[in-house]
Amino acid sequence: METTRVLPELHMFAFAVGQAYLWRDPGSLTLVDAGAAGSGAAVAAAVRGLGHEPGDIDRIVLTHFHEDHAGGAAELAELTGATVMAHRLDAPFVRGEAPGPPPDFTDAPGWERELYENLPPLPAAPPCRVDRELADGDVVDFGGGARVVAAPGHTDGSIALHLPAHGVLFTGDAVANAEGRTILGVFNLDRARAMESFRRLAALETETACFGHGDPIPRDAGAALRRAARAAVRE
After folding, report:
1. % of the chain residues with pLDDT over 70
2. Per-residue pLDDT at 233
3. Mapped to the 3 state alphabet, what secondary structure does 152-169 carry?
């Protein structure tokens, strides 16, 4: 796992598949997503490397239920004692009460299905408690007030987190930044709804965008998102 400084308050933890983000407020840490199952030790070591203890993580906010984002949540929740949060529509899958639905490739380009079918399987996500179920417009107490933005399409309960005080947006998998090209996230449950969510996120006032896959855009991210959303409509 690699750790990258995005902003003074923000570090990215990059795993073999996907990434998570650590936001630092005075006296409090927030983890956005948790990596795949087995990521706990690496995250704990990275947190210590930044001068904190894993127990300083007060909350873990999951952008959606997929294994590469929620798989490490149970281990980290146990390790840190943090409050775990997820959208109410994805919470049952995080808790392991039902299997999550697979992507629907009906309207997707052919390369998406081929990519999906050739990816190495990830370990299943162990069931994890969800202490707070989120909804669109909720505010989470970090980064000066992080607003929950519903971004359905990738999953029904996908969310983004917008920090207006800092101009930071965590997109989850609603948007990706693949090899420097900002695109609609892949492997969606409903591609049309995913496109609507992409346009909604692009309309936000954003300086720094952090994706579930791909390098963050540290400056002028809102303009990049709007250009990408317009391009995606034309594809």
Report:
1. 99
2. 64
3. CCCCCCCEEEEECCCCEE
